[in-house]
Every structure is written in structure tokens, then in C-alpha cells.
Design goal:
The structure holds two protein chains of two kinds.
Chain A: H1 9-19, H2 48-60, E1 69-70, H3 83-89, H4 92-95, H5 107-124, E2 128-129, H6 136-151, E3 156-159, H7 165-175, E4 181-183, H8 192-196, E5 203-209, H9 223-228, E6 233-238, E7 256-260, E8 276-280, E9 293-297, E10 303-307, H10 314-317, H11 330-367, E11 373-374, E12 382-386, H12 391-399, E13 403-404, E14 407-408, E15 419-423, H13 430-443
Parallel strand pairs in A: 1-13, 3-4, 3-5, 5-6, 6-7
Antiparallel strand pairs in A: 2-8, 7-8, 9-10, 11-12, 12-15, 14-15
Helix pairs in contact in A: 3-11, 5-11, 6-7, 11-13
Chain B: H1 49-60, H2 83-88, H3 92-95, H4 107-124, E1 128-130, H5 136-153, E2 161-165, H6 171-178, E3 182-186, H7 196-202, E4 207-213, H8 225-234, E5 238-242, H9 255-258, E6 262-264, E7 285-287, E8 299-302, E9 308-311, H10 327-363, E10 379-382, H11 393-402, E11 409-410, E12 419-422, H12 430-449, H13 451-456, H14 468-473, H15 481-490
Parallel strand pairs in B: 2-3, 2-4, 4-5, 5-6
Antiparallel strand pairs in B: 1-7, 6-7, 8-9, 10-12, 11-12
Helix pairs in contact in B: 4-10, 5-6, 10-12
Classes of the chains: A alpha/beta, B alpha/beta.
């Protein structure tokens, strides 16, 4: 009997008797006999100390932010995670409970989600936010589905080339069964204006990203009007930390704004779980996917929180639901909520400034190195450097010095040549940056 | 004790902050003034660390959870969360590793993923596993996209229908719709299983596949499963297994051997990754060798030299999300499987089924069973108590809160009137089950003798029953000082 089972052998016998079967096996007679009780060829069970050893052995084979200086981003970032967040996430009241279907005993989860929605709205300036999607990529794909439902009978989604290639891939995965045309990102180096030129009366949505996959920030003012003139919607995918300083999606008139919420205190986690941030206008509230928390009163008049506008969801609407999403990223939304609470108005601005100034310090130093050119343009925390040698070679050399170099663009954007996408955050100190620059100078 | 806790915006005071950030150690660069944010973010909260901690600790206490009470939410498998998992998933080599760092720097993480693919395949009888999907619903989406791609790849262009039993989870029909396929609903028979005549009548050259949960949402094993799979295959369709109820059949049956072609595992149900108040989940998928080329990438394989590497299957439907899946959840599922081994996993299902049947036999004289049969890991009863007037399942559920239990799933499956779907899970002891059973029996007596006690329930929770219509008619979806003041003043 494992230490997770609370039924003794004596109790088991009593219970079988009450059920009216002679043995445990007799409860499984509905399973066809030839298929019943197959052998499982699994490794022998391990004790807790053995498990700790086995898992530490696997963990220790990986580089991480404490063994290496990391300049890799491309959609996942080494940002500061305040210690207090994990203290909250480890509370069993939050992490062991489930979707707050019973509001009377789920006010904790419900209030936290409502505060998340409130803070995301304050951060973005957008009118409403849902309780989360799986990650930034799927939030963006759900934006496309919502836009198709809002605009009706339009079959085209336009996406700019500068949107993260993994997100564009997920967008195509999501839409492949629906006879929707996804265009705009075919040509390397094409711009947001090139994508805009494809927006027509058949288009449901234009998707742009700023800061984009290459780190560049775009002045998006005026874009929404041009898209809306065609009857289409504009989705802006943003970096939540950039908003401590820079233009919000609401200020540029976005109809939908999505983000990868990982920078909001989630840690890298080798790619997940992350957080899909989804925001839009109040008027689209009945078309959005996912859970939403609202406010009401109980029978005594006390203020209380509750899941609301549920008639959009799969458990009620079935095949006519706005999405099949059920479980989302609840605990990650809580992490982001605690992060934003701790940072506050000043902290959000300070983090953005640290990223911006350190990234620019790094870019200026690299630009001075012979053989290296920094791609021109306005950027936030990530930028493209053209290198004198293949990026794979440089990164291999950096690894010898416990540095994880930037993202190699050779596969996604071969026309850029030896191009490295470098991310610099508040976690990369001046000393780290100086060391990177010194080594790249030697290897160049 | 008044546990009401204000919205965090009401606790804010200008000038405070709750973190200790690095100082700026480089020269300031010029900011692009045209791109700066125009508002002052003035409504963003400002608090210190102690204030934030107290706030989120206080509101946590307004939550029920499996750590504090039995939480028999049917179909959700609210088993206890092993505490070791919360530690190991936070080891820095897992929690602080970048998903795109060179594979040579990620061998431990990739090894763990490779091993988990192998274990899940073995437990379910499937040839290939992808760990990428983020939750069960996304696993379903993956499977039905793979079915579509498989048929199209064979030049079989007219398979546009997915058969879904009327007892199915809402995610099944919603998934089929997202893939652009038509849902054809199947009836259930008197035994609570798929109606075979209806199945035969609805199979056709248009059938892309069938989605089935087994055990189904009535907690009953589909005892004609082998024949169902054969019929669907003969019609040229594929069988999708919704793994939401997999906790019932670990070491009891392998879906891949029964004839399923594809299934998802809810790692947050069967394999103990915590439910998180509504995620993150993890919806890894397994399938036959025939469907493996269509799986989402990246998956992990071992090279001849013994290293681990990521690869994308040749005819992949594409990515379901960024990166490799909800990795931290995979660490927990790996740990669970390696803790229990084959015998321990079978014991999980045996006790889960034992506990559900024990509750069933102790309550069925008062709460009629939806179908009078031995059940698997959960039992579906009806809140129809003889002699009780004007009592609904909702009232029973709310009264259970006063007895210190999280209510079961209610009004699901939709085909059972006044359904109460009870899934105790294997981690509950007999003592707790007996207290739960007694509570249910006491509530039935109250329903007859003092029905208003049920109508007024709950009275011991942080709040009482809510005006859900008001929430939907006058939606307040973000903090609004006036709306909050209005509600508070009405008290």
C-alpha cells in the first residue's frame, strides 16, 4: 500500500463486503476479460530519498539562470521573480483547488482572478480581460477565432511576418480545419505596412506584435483606423513589461490585445506553464473564450465574486461554444497578480527602464565591436546583431564560458545571414554584459 | 469572524512598492518620446510586500481545497497532491532553464520528457506520445486535428462527422466544432452505455471518428468497447479516447489495446499535477503508430549515441502552443509514476473504484442511482429524495458545504436529471467517506423534515448564495470604485 492510500486491508475487506463483491477484481468484470489487468512494464517504485536523487541528477544536467548568464529570449525571458510569489502559490487553498464552480467556498480564487482581470485592464488600458489562456501563442490564436465570430462570414486572417514564428505556427494549427486563409507573413523582411496592404473586406483580423519578434517597437498609432475602415479588427500582441513605459494597446485603438504573461513573475520553467493574456473591448464580451469573473451580492447583500457570462462556455453551449477551453492557467494568473501587486506602479516602470537601458548599453557596446552590426530601429529589451561568424559557432564558444547566447535566427530568417537575437533584462548586470561583449569581441 | 477582504485597489497608497529591484548600473539611453505611455498608470495598485502577503493569504482562506476537505468533484479527480512534487518541480535545472537553450544544455529535462513519453505510452498501450498539449481540451483538439489530417493524407476527403455520445463532456462537441467537423450525437442505452443500434445507424462514409470517455461520464465502463472500436474502424473512422476518467483503469485496461487510436491524459487529474484553481493542466496525448506522424512537435527521441533531442513528426499537424508543453507539470507526473510503479498505479485505480462503489452502495437507497450497476471511479446519483418537496440537487450540494465538504459535480452528465456526480478518489480514507455518507443521509432527512435548512444553505461559508443573474445582467468585470461602493452601501 502506498503512502497516498488511506484504506487499510481490513477496511478494504469491509468495504468489499458492503459493496457485495468477493474481491477487488470483481469490480472490474465490465472490462472485457482478454483485456483485463494488463501488465505494466514500468521501472520499480522508488522511495522519496531515491526520487530526490534521481530528479536532482536530471535537474543538474541542465543549464539554468544560476549556472549561466542568459541572453536568450525569443518568447521566454529571464526576468526577476520576487520570492513572495512562490509563498502564495504554495498555499494549498490555491494550488490544490479547482475551477471555482462553487462560489461560496471559492471566493479566494475568484477574487484573485478578478484582481488579475482588473490589473491587466489597468496595465493595458483595455476594457476587459479573461481569466487566461494556455500561453501567448494560444491567446493569439483564440483572438483570431473571436475575430472570425465577431466579423462573421470573413475568411481571412492577416498576420505580420514580425510576429513570433511559433505563434504564427500555432495560429495555423488552430485554424487548419476551418477553411480560413492566413496570409501576410510569407515574405522575409516584410513590414506591418505590407501586411496592412492585404487587409480587405474579407479580412477578420490583422495581427501585429510590438515589441515584435525581433525586439523592435512600432508606433502603431493610426493603424487601427485603417484596419477598422475595412470592417476588420486589430490585434496587438504586446510584452506586459514594456507597458511600464511604452504605448499601450488601448492607446493605439486595438480591438484585441494579447500577450505572453511569462515575464510577469512566472520563471522560465523550460517552456511552461506560462500564461496567455487576453483582452478586448466590452462590446465583444459575449464572443470571447475562456472564463470571466464578475461581481455580485449574496442573499445577505455581501459583495461576492462569481464566474459569469457562462453561456459562452463548452460545458453549457457544447458545439456552439466560443472555444473548447476548460482548464486554463489559473495558478499562473495568480502568480502574475501577485507579481503586479508587488511591483506596483513604480516597480512596473522601473523594470521596464532597467530592461531598456541595459539592452541599449549592450547594443551600443556590441555595435562598437569590429565585424558586428546592430540592426537599426527602436527596441525595448531585445535586438538583432549581425555577426561575423555563424551564430551557432559563437554560441558554442560562449557555452564554454557559462553564457547562453542569443537566439540564432538562421532557421527562421535565413535571409538575415549570421543574425543573433539578444535579450537583455533587469537580470543581466553591467558586468554580465561587459563579459558577453568582451567574449564576442574575441570570437568575432 | 468577518473575513471580507477589500479589493486590492482599495488597499493601495501612492508611493509604496513591494520589491527590491537592481539599481541602474549603466548610463541611461534616450527614450523614444513618441512611443511613451501617455497615462500615468494611476490606478495601478501600490503596496508593500507585507501588505500583499496578508491580502493574498487572507483571501486564500476564503477557498475550500482538497488540502482542507474532501472535494469529490466528479470527473475532476481531486486526489491529494503529493508534496514532494511541489519541491522537485522547482529544482533550478527545471524551473529556471530556458526552453530554447542548446539541447546539450538541456539533457536532463529532455531525458525526463523522453522517459515520461515512454511511461505514458506503456500505461495506455500506445506507441507514441506527445507532451505538448496544455490541457485536456487541447489534447482533444490535437487528436481530432490529427484524425482530420490522417484522412486527408489518405485522400479520404469526405469524413466530416464526429460521433459524440450525449453523455460526453462539453469539450468533446466543442472540440469537433473547432476542427470544422459536424457533431453527430449518440444515444445512451438503459445500461448507461453507448446505444449500439444508434451507433450502427449513424456510422457512415462521412464518419471521421468517434469521441468516447471510458469509463464514461456516468462512471460506467463501456463493456462493448471492443465492438464499438471495431465498428468505427470498419466504417473507416478513428476512435478518440477522452482520458478524463483514466484514473479508473491504470493497470486495469489499456485504451490502446482496446482499440482506441488516440487519447489524452489529464496529468492534472490522473497523475496528480495540482489543479491550481483552474490550471495549469497538462493534456499529453498518446496514439497508434499509424497516427504518430501527425502528432504535434516537438517530441523527444534518443539518438544512437544516447543523447536526447527534439524532433517534429514528418506530417505533424503543427504546434499546439509555444515551446514543449507545460513542462513543470511533466516533472510532477514523472515523479508520481516513479513513486508508485506498476503495482502502485493499479492500486490507485482499485481503491478509487472501491471508494466510489462504497459511497454508491451506502447512498443508493436514498439517492437513486442513474444506472443500478457497479461503477468505476465515480458514481452518478440523483438528488431526488423520496418525500422531499421543492428540493433540488443544488440545495443538497449547498448544504454539503455546511457539513464541511466540497459539493460533487452537479447537473452533469446532462442526460441525468438532478445529477450528483461523486468521485471520492483513492486518497480519501474510510473514516472520511463514512462522515461524508452520514452527511448525505442527514441532508436527505433534513430535505424532508426541514427543507428550508437546505434552501438557506450554505450558512457557514464566507458568503451565502449569490445573485448570479445580477452578475450577468450588470457585468462588472474589473475594479470599479462606484460599482463596489454601490454594492457595499446596499448592505
Amino acid at each position: 500500500m502506498s503512502h497516498y492510500i488511506s484504506i487499510t486491508a481490513t477496511e478494504r475487506a469491509e468495504m468489499l463486503k458492503a459493496i457485495g463483491v468477493a474481491s477487488t477484481d470483481d469490480m472490474f468484470v465490465d472490462v472485457p476479460e482478454g483485456w483485463r489487468f494488463p501488465a505494466l512494464d514500468l521501472p520499480a517504485p522508488m522511495s522519496e530519498p531515491e526520487l530526490v536523487r534521481a530528479l536532482l541528477a536530471r535537474s543538474n544536467k541542465n543549464a539554468h539562470v544560476h549556472t549561466h548568464s542568459i541572453f536568450l529570449g525569443a518568447g521566454a525571458y529571464n526576468h526577476f521573480v520576487p520570492t513572495a510569489i512562490d509563498q502564495i502559490l504554495r498555499r494549498g487553498e490555491y494550488y490544490t483547488s479547482y475551477t471555482p464552480y462553487q462560489p461560496e467556498i471559492s471566493q479566494g480564487t475568484l477574487q484573485a482572478i478578478f484582481e488579475y482581470q482588473s490589473m491587466i485592464c489597468s496595465l493595458t488600458g483595455m476594457e476587459i480581460a479573461n481569466a487566461s489562456h494556455y500561453d501567448g501563442a494560444t491567446a493569439l490564436a483564440e483572438a483570431a477565432i473571436m475575430a472570425l465570430n465577431v466579423t462573421r462570414n470573413r475568411r481571412k486572417i492577416v498576420v505580420a511576418r514580425s510576429v513570433n514564428p511559433q505563434y504564427r505556427a500555432v495560429l495555423r494549427t488552430y485554424l487548419q480545419g476551418l477553411e480560413i486563409e492566413v496570409v501576410g507573413d510569407e515574405t522575409p523582411g516584410s513590414s506591418i505596412d505590407d501586411a496592412l496592404a492585404l487587409v480587405d473586406k474579407q479580412t477578420a483580423l490583422l495581427i501585429v506584435q510590438s515589441p515584435d519578434f525581433f525586439g523592435r517597437m512600432h508606433d502603431l498609432r493610426g493603424l487601427a483606423e485603417k484596419v477598422q475602415a475595412q470592417g476588420a479588427l486589430l490585434c496587438v500582441h504586446f510584452d506586459p513589461l514594456a507597458l511600464g513605459l511604452f504605448q499601450t494597446p488601448a492607446e493605439v485603438g486595438a480591438d484585441i490585445a494579447t500577450a505572453e504573461g511569462q515575464p510577469l513573475g512566472l520563471g522560465l520553467n523550460f517552456g511552461g506553464p506560462y500564461l496567455g493574456v487576453f483582452t478586448t473591448r466590452q462590446k465583444h464580451v459575449h464572443k470571447i473564450a475562456g472564463r470571466i469573473v464578475g461581481v455580485t451580492k449574496d442573499v445577505d447583500g455581501q459583495l461576492a465574486y462569481v464566474l459569469t457570462l457562462r453561456a459562452r462556455e463548452q460545458d453549457i453551449r457544447r458545439e456552439r461554444a466560443t472555444s473548447n477551453i476548460c482548464t486554463n492557467q489559473g495558478l499562473m494568473a495568480l502568480a502574475a497578480t501577485v507579481y503586479m501587486s508587488l511591483m506596483g506602479r513604480q516597480g512596473m516602470r522601473n523594470v521596464a527602464e532597467l530592461c531598456y537601458h541595459r539592452a541599449h548599453y549592450a547594443a551600443e557596446a556590441l555595435a562598437r565591436l569590429p565585424g558586428y552590426q546592430v540592426e537599426p530601429g527602436t527596441f525595448f529589451k531585445e535586438f538583432v546583431v549581425h555577426c561575423p561568424r555563424p551564430v551557432a559557432e559563437l554560441n558554442a564558444a560562449l557555452r564554454e564560458h557559462q553564457i547562453v547566447g542569443g537566439y540564432d535566427l538562421a532557421e527562421d530568417e535565413p535571409t538575415l545571414g549570421n543574425a543573433m537575437l539578444l535579450a537583455v533584462t533587469e537580470m543581466n548586470s553591467k558586468a554580465d554584459i561587459d563579459r558577453l561583449v568582451e567574449l564576442l569581441g574575441q570570437f568575432g | 469572524m468577518d473575513t471580507y477582504e477589500p479589493h486590492i485597489y482599495e488597499l493601495s497608497a501612492p508611493g509604496k512598492h513591494g520589491t527590491n529591484l537592481p539599481r541602474l548600473d549603466v548610463p541611461e539611453a534616450a527614450l523614444p518620446t513618441a512611443l511613451l505611455r501617455q497615462d500615468g498608470m494611476n490606478d495601478f495598485p501600490e503596496l508593500t510586500e507585507p501588505e500583499v502577503m496578508r491580502h493574498y493569504t487572507r483571501i486564500s482562506q476564503r477557498n475550500a481545497s482538497p488540502d482542507t476537505m474532501m472535494y469529490p468533484l466528479g470527473s475532476c479527480t481531486m486526489k491529494a497532491t503529493p508534496k514532494l512534487h511541489e519541491e522537485v518541480a522547482r529544482y533550478a535545472g527545471f524551473a529556471a532553464a530556458h526552453p530554447l537553450q542548446d539541447e546539450s544544455l538541456s539533457q536532463g529535462a529532455l531525458q525526463l520528457m523522453y522517459e515520461l513519453q515512454d511511461y505514458l505510452g506503456e500505461i495506455s498501450g500506445f506507441e507514441a506520445v506527445s507532451l505538448q498539449p496544455a490541457a485536456g481540451a487541447q489534447g482533444e483538439f490535437t487528436g481530432i486535428l490529427a484524425f482530420r489530417a490522417y484522412h486527408l493524407d489518405r485522400g479520404d476527403l469526405d469524413r466530416t462527422e464526429v460521433l459524440v455520445p450525449n453523455a460526453a463532456h462539453g469539450t468533446n462537441p466543442a472540440t469537433a466544432a473547432m476542427v470544422g467537423l459536424k457533431v453527430v450525437e449518440l444515444k445512451s442505452n438503459a445500461r448507461g452505455n453507448v446505444d449500439m443500434d444508434d451507433l450502427r445507424a449513424k456510422l457512415s462514409p462521412r464518419t471521421a471518428g468517434m469521441m468516447l470517455t471510458n469509463p464514461n461520464t456516468l462512471g460506467l465502463f463501456e463493456d462493448q468497447i471492443v465492438e464499438i472500436c471495431q465498428l468505427v474502424h470498419e466504417a473507416g473512422g478513428l476512435m478518440y479516447g477522452d482520458g478524463a476518467n483514466f484514473n479508473a483503469i491504470l493497470g486495469i485496461a489499456k485504451p490502446g489495446k482496446l482499440g482506441f487510436d488516440f487519447m489524452h491524459y489529464n496529468l492534472h487529474k490522473t497523475f496528480t499535477t495540482p489543479h491550481g484553481g483552474g490550471g495549469p493542466g497538462s493534456g499529453a496525448v498518446g496514439c497508434t503508430a499509424e497516427l504518430a506522424p501527425f502528432l504535434p512537435g516537438p517530441r523527444v527521441r534518443q539518438t544512437a549515441s544516447g543523447n536526447y533531442e527534439l524532433f517534429t513528426p514528418e506530417k505533424s499537424i503543427g504546434r499546439m502552443k509555444a515551446f514543449h508543453g507545460n513542462f513543470a507539470m511533466l516533472v510532477r507526473a514523472w515523479t508520481y509514476i516513479r513513486t508508485l510503479g506498476a503495482a502502485g498505479l493499479r492500486e490507485v485505480s482499485e481503491i478509487a473504484v472501491l471508494n466510489a462503489n462504497y459511497v454508491r452502495v451506502k447512498l443508493k437507497d436514498i439517492y437513486p442511482q442513474a444506472v443500478d450497476r457497479i461503477c468505476m471511479h465515480e458514481t452518478v446519483l440523483k438528488g431526488q429524495i423520496a418525500g422531499a418537496q421543492g428540493i433540488r440537487t443544488l440545495d443538497i450540494a449547498k448544504r454539503l458545504i455546511d457539513y464541511g465538504f466540497h459539493p460533487p459535480t452537479v447537473y452533469f452528465p446532462l442526460i441525468v436529471p438532478e445529477a450528483l456526480m461523486i468521485e471520492p478518489t483513492e486518497t480519501e480514507g474510510k473514516r472520511t467517506l463514512d462522515i461524508f455518507i452520514q452527511a448525505m443521509r442527514d441532508i436527505a432527512r433534513e430535505a424532508v423534515e426541514t427543507p428550508d435548512v437546505l434552501h438557506d444553505a450554505p450558512t457557514t461559508a464566507p458568503v451565502r448564495r449569490l445573485d448570479e443573474v445580477r452578475a450577468a445582467r450588470q457585468p462588472i468585470l474589473r475594479y470599479n470604485a462606484e460599482a463596489f461602493a454601490q454594492i457595499l452601501n446596499e448592505q
